[in-house]
Amino acid sequence: MRLTPEQLHTYEEQGFLFVPDLITQTEVDLLRAEVPKLYSDNSLRRVVEKEGYVTRSVYGCHLVNDYFKHFASEPKLLGPAKQLVDDDVYIYQFKINAKVAFQGDVWKWHQDYIFWRNEDGLPAPRITNIAIFLDEVTEFNGPLFLIPGSHREGVIEVPARVARPTNGVYKDAPEWITTLTADLKYSVDSPKVAELVERYGITAPKGKPGDAICFHSNLVHASTINISPFSRTMLLITYNSINNIPSGVDRTRPDFIAGRNYSPLTENNRM
């Protein structure tokens, strides 16, 4: 699959591209069938909400599950990813974001690249996200909020939140856990968000299972809590240019968060 010039222009201007029917319902069903296995993981790859038991995210899915590993090289994903970064790519990050019914917590306003630059030493935002809906996404179950065009601001420098969890499941966890939990280490403050929304507007793409959003690593985004009875599961694959290898910092985050297999992906046709 290749994106059209019009789609590439939309991504460049808006910082994201909504792609309906990126994968089929059959593929959605196969992916969803693998998710419960990931939710049973008791390692730090599985991040939980503040209550300590509800799954928030699972990282490094492709490292422990062959189906996810092969899925990342599907032409319908890999082709657009290579176009969006204008290069061959490898998997930088592969995760499931859960947003469980009645319990999914907030993702504060943030940009992704500031995490990857500061924590992993990523040189440039030559990296893109592809988020695939595994459930129907509605206005009720915590859709992604996006500020179109905000990626053109570049990196919005924000102070790091230095406080670590002092109680609960993560009180003895490594410091990098604050880059994954609800109290994000780098978040954009309310006055800046209000300024950006006044300038660019705000949107919340909704759709059915199999639809997807490609979005830029500097796009300011967030999501609200999910108090509805409808879960909102998303699969997110982050593809990085093979010529944008992290360096220059003490890279303490494990490879299930910042991938270290820099071999370029090649398309497979096994699904």
List the helices and strands and how they pair.
Elements: H1 5-14, E1 16-19, H2 25-39, E2 46-48, E3 55-59, H3 61-64, H4 66-71, H5 75-85, E4 89-97, E5 107-110, H6 113-120, E6 127-133, E7 144-146, H7 190-200, E8 212-216, E9 221-223, E10 234-241
Antiparallel strand pairs: 1-8, 2-3, 3-4, 4-10, 5-9, 6-8, 6-10, 7-9
Description of the molecule:
The radius of gyration is 17 Å and the shape is globular. The protein starts with a helix and ends in a 30-residue tail after the last strand. The model has no long low-confidence stretch (mean pLDDT 94). 24% of the residues lie in helices and 19% in strands. It contains 7 helices and 10 strands. It has a single domain (5-241), classed as Jelly Rolls (Sandwich). The longest helix has 15 residues, at 25-39. The chain has 271 residues and is an alpha+beta fold. 44% of the residues are buried. Strands 1-8-6-10-4-3-2 form a 7-stranded antiparallel β-sheet.
**Count of spatially separate domains:** 1
Strand order of the largest sheet: 1-8-6-10-4-3-2
CATH architecture: Sandwich
Computed structural class: alpha+beta
Strand content: 15-25%
* Number of helical stretches of at least 4 residues: 7
